[in-house]
């Protein structure tokens, strides 16, 4: 069997959520199934670190697909001849985009439909592309994989797509997201926060991630709870907005907010394991990988009570209303003031996190591939 894969989001030192899903699942699947051939389709010069096994043939399809016009060219002009030449039996697309101009069976992984729920957070030209093409991608798909029951129901309802053709495969936490000892945690804090405890946010800086309310909540928290607790924000500032800047400038404790930018994986694992708590109060998530990674690090979590996050957090996290600054602040105060609550969350998280791993995800995705064929 020949499986062609859209691997355009496998970028060295620039792995975001969907890229992480692609890397972790494909590294397992390709090595566990040497009897099959895989064609990895990149949109720029590829890195050898992503050629996980000898049964992978890398192909580069130019130009780099980072704009709606280039997306169209990549998927509708570039992909079809590659699939035809490779005699592919299936086209697997971990980011949900498909090619409408190929007869090859296709399996997209649709992580969420945030652009339908919060269109104001998406630039017009990108939103227009999504609104036009995603219904067509769904119609084209032989089956669909997704990462939560929430998104499964969302896809089935919005597109009138049969739920029994949508497979939930979840996400996992990468190797190395593990607890650290007290001495190791202090070394990390010395390096990033002058030895002070800190709340942590991890993710792409985007309006959907609700950084404005998080910053405002931290400001109110510090005014109430007199301490040296800081806020560490790790993620690319590509989508930093005027609202975020205004919240930052109006924050009385903005000097206590540390903007790290993008952090390397090895450093991120240590930062996560040394945090007082993860605060992930996004407006909308199809899963929420940082929540799971924090649970694997024995780091207590505050997250939104919306979308797929309760499915991931279960009874092992503190929930907040993302639109309510006071709700976020209250959760931060509880986490700081109540050591017994912290310990209870950690113990519950050890049970909850066992429900999710990249090995399980890869197995479920492979099952979805087999159903297509």
Describe what this molecule looks like in 3D.
The radius of gyration is 21 Å and the shape is globular. The chain contains 14 helices and 13 strands. With 373 residues, it is α/β, with parallel strands linked by helices. It folds into 2 domains: 2-172 and 358-372, Glycogen Phosphorylase B (Rossmann fold); 182-355, 3-Layer(aba) Sandwich (Rossmann fold), CATH 3.40.50. The strands form 3 sheets. A 6-stranded parallel β-sheet has the order 10-9-8-11-12-13, with helices on both faces. Helices cover 45% and strands 15% of the residues. α1 packs across α14 (358-372) and α7 (211-224) packs parallel to α8. β1, α1 (17-32) and β2 form a beta-alpha-beta unit. The relative contact order is 0.12.
In terms of topology, how is this protein built?
Layout: E1 2-6, H1 17-32, E2 37-42, E3 56-60, H2 68-86, E4 90-93, E5 106-108, H3 114-117, H4 124-140, E6 144-146, H5 149-159, E7 166-168, H6 182-193, E8 198-202, H7 211-224, E9 230-234, H8 242-250, E10 257-261, H9 265-273, E11 277-280, H10 289-296, E12 301-304, H11 309-313, E13 318-320, H12 325-337, H13 339-352, H14 358-372
Parallel strand pairs: 1-2, 1-4, 2-3, 4-5, 6-7, 8-9, 8-11, 9-10, 11-12, 12-13
Helix pairs in contact: 1-14, 7-8, 7-12
Distance between the termini: 9 Å
**Strand order, sheet with most strands:** 10-9-8-11-12-13
Number of DSSP helices? 14
Strand % is 5-15%
So what's the oligomer here? Answer: single chain
Q: Which CATH C-level class of the largest domain is it? A: Alpha Beta
Q: What is the H/E string? A: EHEEHEEHHEHEHEHEHEHEHEHEHHH
Largest sheet: 6 strands, parallel
- Per CATH, the superfamily of the largest domain is Glycogen Phosphorylase B
Spatial shape? globular
Q: Could you say how many structural domains there are in total?
A: 2
- Report the CATH architecture of the largest domain: 3-Layer(aba) Sandwich
- Total beta strands: 13
| Helix and strand composition category | alpha/beta
- Note poorly predicted spans: none
CATH topology of the largest domain: Rossmann fold
């Amino acid at each position: 069997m020949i499986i062609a894969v859209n691997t355009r989001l496998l970028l060295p030192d620039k792995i975001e959520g969907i890229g992480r899903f692609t890397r972790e699942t494909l590294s397992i699947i390709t090595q566990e199934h040497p009897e099959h051939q895989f064609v990895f389709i990149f949109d720029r010069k590829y890195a050898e670190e992503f050629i996980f096994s000898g049964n992978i043939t890398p192909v580069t399809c130019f130009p780099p697909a980072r704009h709606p016009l280039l997306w169209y060219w990549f998927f509708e002009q570039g992909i079809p001849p590659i699939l035809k030449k490779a005699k592919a039996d299936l086209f697997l697309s971990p980011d949900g985009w498909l090619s409408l101009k190929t007869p090859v069976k296709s399996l997209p992984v649709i992580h969420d439909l945030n652009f339908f729920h919060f269109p104001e957070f998406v630039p017009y030209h990108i939103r227009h592309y999504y609104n036009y093409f995603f219904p067509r991608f769904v119609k084209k798909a032989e089956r669909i994989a997704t990462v939560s029951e929430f998104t499964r129901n969302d896809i089935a309802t919005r597109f009138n797509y049969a739920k029994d053709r949508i497979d939930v495969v979840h996400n996992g936490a990468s190797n190395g997201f593990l607890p650290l000892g007290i001495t190791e945690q202090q070394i990390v804090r010395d390096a990033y926060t002058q030895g002070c405890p800190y709340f942590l946010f991890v993710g792409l800086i985007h309006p959907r991630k609700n950084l404005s309310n998080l910053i405002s909540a931290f400001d109110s928290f510090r005014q109430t709870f007199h301490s040296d607790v800081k806020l560490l924000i790790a993620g690319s500032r590509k989508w930093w907005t005027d609202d975020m800047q205004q919240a930052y400038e109006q924050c009385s404790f903005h000097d206590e907010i540390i903007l790290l930018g993008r952090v390397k994986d090895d450093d991120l694992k240590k930062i996560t394991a040394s945090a007082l708590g993860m605060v992930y109060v996004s407006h909308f998530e199809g899963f929420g990988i940082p929540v799971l990674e924090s649970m694997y690090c024995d780091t207590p979590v505050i997250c939104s009570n919306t979308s797929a996050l309760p499915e991931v957090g279960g009874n092992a996290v503190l929930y907040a209303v993302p639109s309510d600054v006071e709700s976020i602040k209250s959760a931060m105060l509880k986490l700081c003031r109540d050591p017994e609550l912290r310990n209870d969350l950690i113990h519950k998280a050890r049970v909850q996190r066992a429900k999710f791993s990249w090995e399980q995800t890869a197995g479920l995705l492979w099952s979805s591939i087999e159903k297509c064929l």
